[in-house]
Amino acid sequence: MSEGPQLAPPSAAPSPELITPDSILHRVEWQVIRLLDGFLQGDYRTLFYGSGVDFTDLREYQPQDDIRHIDWNVTARTNTPYVRQYVEDREITAWFLLDLSPSMGFGLAERNKERVLIDLVAALARLLTRNGNRVGAILYNNRIDRTIPPRGGRIQVLRLIHELLDGSEKPAKTTTDLNELLNAGLNTFKRRSLVFLISDFFSKPGWNQPLAMINQRHEMVAVRLWDSREVELPDAGLIVIEDAETGEQLTVDTSDIRFRRRFREATNRHEALLQDDLRKSGVDLFTLSTEEDLVGAIVRMAALRKKRNRLSAQERVTAY
């Protein structure tokens, strides 16, 4: 009786790279943070800064300012509201509000929106913790999945990555509601913090109100992740598309130029509404494509925040 084909021993067979918290963080440290040190020269205060405790100056109140910083004595003397400004804290407490709803799985398997979110969180969290700051997170998957209290150190970054990779039991098909995630943040943050909201912003309306409330009490940064295939349909004939949130399926003819035009117009309307909601909330919005280099994206983020801070500084006045 002849033997069948022999299998190579397990040790000789090529195995795919295991995706672990250690492997992700190691890759991010070498491919992202090491390069950022060169671009930003280690000065991340342009990107991250605290609320401070030492009074330094006064300036006129702006709609997005924290009302707790209003100086009522100066306001009464000048009949114009003024807010106190403070020097930066050495230690920052940063929170990540993370949208892990089904639509975040859109994109190429090796580079979908959720994979980009994990890399971005790993990079930002490591930049913060290695300078002595603390980071925490609230994970949302069409419900509040879990809350990770803020701590410092590399171990905390590994824990964040582990929780993001671990996932949870998939919730029932439903539409994302960022109100729930933002309200969880409002009820959780006990001290003034730096808050990153990372999402694709496919959500029920009304989330701009709790977002504005967080922005009044904390320093808020919104990051929108997107994939080019979400905004421009290819000419691929009849295809079945599925709503990742609700599971609803629809057969469409992508060879119909009129249908592709209507699809593009719908995405443009969604973009316009998103920009309007964020503008009303007074929140910075940074967009990050699944095809974009993470180093370049973070450098761009730092440059935009530096410009914003410089413009704010030019508006300062002294009430004397």
Average pLDDT over all residues: 80
Helix content: 25-40%
What low-confidence regions span 5 or more consecutive residues with pLDDT below 50?
1-16, 50-55, 313-320
CATH second-level architecture of the largest domain = 3-Layer(aba) Sandwich
Count, helices: 8
Assigned CATH superfamily of the largest domain: von Willebrand factor, type A domain
Sheet with most strands: 6 strands, mixed
Query: Helix and strand succession?
Result: HEHEEHEEHHEHEEEHEH
Beta-strand residue percentage? 15-25%
What's the β-strand tally?
Answer: 10
CATH class of the largest domain: Alpha Beta
What value does the Rg take, in angstroms?
23 Å
The outline comes out as: globular
- Number of structural units classed as domains: 2
> Could you say what the CATH topology of the largest domain is called?
Rossmann fold
End-to-end CA span: 101 Å
Structural class: alpha/beta
Strands in their spatial order, largest beta sheet: 5-4-3-6-7-10
Q: Would you give an account of this structure?
A:
By secondary structure, this protein is of the alpha/beta class. The protein folds into 2 domains: 21-46 and 88-234 and 284-314, Rossmann fold (3-Layer(aba) Sandwich); 55-86, no CATH class. It is built from 8 helices and 10 strands. It has a 6-stranded mixed β-sheet, with helices on both faces. Strands 1-2 form a two-stranded antiparallel sheet. A two-stranded antiparallel sheet has the order 8-9. Helix 3 links the parallel strand 3 and strand 4 (134-140). Helix 1 (21-40) crosses helix 3 and helix 5 (178-188) runs parallel beside helix 6. The longest helix is centred in the C-terminal third of the chain and has 25 residues, at 257-281. The chain starts with 20 loop residues before the first helix and ends in a 6-residue tail after the last helix. The model is unreliable at 1-16, 50-55 and 313-320 (pLDDT under 50).
